[in-house]
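Lab notebook page, bench 4
Experiment: in silico fold of construct C2
Operator: M.H.
Input chain length: 291 residues
Purpose: comparison with the prior construct
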Amino acid sequence: MNTKPQAIFLSKSQLIIDIVQLCIGSTLCAIATNSILIPNNFLTGGITGICLIIHKIIPTFDVGLLYFLFNIPLFVLAWMSVGRRFFVFSIIGALTLTFALLSIKFVHFQVEDKMLNALLAGLIQGVGAGLCLRTSGSQGGTDILSVMLLKRFSISIGSTILTVNCIVMLLISVYYSIEAVLYTMIVVFVGSKMINIVVTGFSQRKSVFIISQEWEKISQEILKDIRRGVTIIKGEGGYKRSSEHILYAVIAFTEIGELKRIVRNIDPNAFVVISNTLEVMNYRIGNQPHW
């Protein structure tokens, strides 16, 4: 059966928003690289880490140019495994990051403590990469691999980036001191956590189980006030063997407070379990990636 090809641009306004986010994210990543990582002799993982080690050995090779060249085979994977939109916007993201790395060399941070430099670099780099991944594309590099694994195996982006970066750092640590490697592990860890926060943010979904004698009132309030669907599961208590009605719902992170208020007002003795979800597929409450 023929399927309609994926549209590259969602809308004119979304195109503008995506490009602005790519530019801001790339600028932040370039500032972290040129103003903190290179002056402090830190390295980083992924494609950028490989580029930094080549730049250290051969200073005439610019980090920005090397980054773009290494991304060419990854673009092919993006086209084949993710989609046309992600491919096009990843090229735009890689180009903006390359331009930012080549041009933004005038921002300097006067932080003496290396630990603070590592934390600051991870914070800035993580926010920048996360902003780019919130668009329809990425900055290339390990971001492409991370999106592929997220779509295929639901592995979080931050986890993939952290794992790949640690492996790359171990391979190239022979050119750096152990101290630099340890500081860089801080950069990578903080950066991966910031990426998860920026990409997922308040769009994270929570699954909720509620056991209460007032299950009917609670379910009606959830439907009316939070406007989320509720599934009623018939169960049986393990001790008294009494029949129970278990409410199951998936809500947004920002709706947890309202749900707790509803349950407390109706039945303070209700048994409530709230769990994290990795990915939810649904046209209303779903938070699947947009790539």
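Observations: The first strand starts at residue 205 and ends at 211. The CA atoms of residues 79 and 87 lie 5 Å apart.
Next step: discuss at group meeting.
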